[in-house]
Amino acid sequence: MKYKLYNQLVENKKTGKKSFSVLIDPDKVDISAIEQLVGLSIDAKVDYFFVGGSLIISNHLDACIRQIKSTCHIPVILFPGSPSQVSSYADALLYLSLISGRNPELLIGQHVLSATQVKNSGLEIISTGYMVVDGGAPTAVTYISNATPIPADKNDIAMCTAMAGEMLGMKLIYMDAGSGAKRPITETMIENVAQNIEVPLIVGGGITNPEKAYLNCKAGADIIVVGNAIEKDASIIKEISDAVHSIPVTI
Length: 251
Description:
There is one protein chain. By secondary structure, the chain is of the alpha/beta class. It contains 10 helices and 8 strands. Helix 8 packs parallel to helix 10 (236-245).
């Protein structure tokens, strides 16, 4: 399997180049509104689209991705609520294993059931250690996963969880406070994790302004993901993108 996007993420990390991803939940975005969202993202030089949700109760996944791909060249990466949420129209899939929880179905069980479908999808598959951190409010991911999130002040637990995920072979670590989180992940936790792993680090959940995105990048996040805040006000896409991309690149 060719790892085009993953290799790009690794190279970005080596040079310190930060990336911004807009998260689109097909259940929350009308197909008719995607064109405007994509237009704003192009103007803001957004790096990636993450597409997915905890449930995906609509039949809009394929249509959503096809609409994005028809209007821009920004890579589309599936961020599935379960490994079976697959669309061959995307460029890659984050194969999420919930390493912060103890639910065996989300560690490996659902992956076994979806393995053939995922393998035959033709997508670039990127194994991802997914860590849910307490964001101060119940979220869809904590309810669906039936797993207790990492306490917001337990930096050592987050650090060791990420290290274990990397040593088990995960190619990415994704720390998420969840959609609609009252508080985002702290810079201290991000820094502790970033300093102890070598794979790219994704951070999302509760990031509602460019200042927070900038501080998360300074703390060590390689990719910032924002979804819920953009659903409320799409105009902040450029401000957050500018903040993320303002971090100096080292060659």
